Amino acid sequence: HFFLNDVSGSCDWISNWFFCLIYAAQNSFRRVRVFDFDHQTVETTIAMTEPSMMDAFIRVRDIRQKKLMIHGTSNMYQAFESFLESVKLNRRSTLMILTDCRDWAGPKVDGIPQSAELVEKMCRKCRKVMVFNPEDPKKWDVVDSCVSHYRDAGAEIYEVRNLNQLANLVRDI
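The chain above was modelled as a monomer; its predicted structure follows.
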């Protein structure tokens, strides 16, 4: 299981909740790897092994600060590209991306974000790619949102911004 946690400025309001979800999940799954991203990706798996959630949080924040990832700009193309260079995905891999799908600074060709090509690549390699989007679906595909592009690339998109939505998703999966 791989987790990609968006810590860019647009997800600042939800990234701490995402952290709590990932911290809890890593105790439920075998062989979990965790990455945070904004315009780049950094692995935070080692920090998540801390026995105390507060110690894990402090360690993750330290890792992010050392990589200058505090309220960074979203460039999902660069972030996904570096993620793909860091990991070996295969048909047994499940990738969960916690993001609002706002690729503000990523390159686009004919209005289509190039990050969608990388999502498609991840979908071909993995058993499943799920995107947990904390935004109201009314905001999807507005301005810099890439939801439909990622869905067209093969990712499953879910609205997840509270425990009820998360519980319903887990029940339905």
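The beta strands are 2-6, 33-37, 41-43, 94-98, 108-109, 112-113, 128-133, 156-159.
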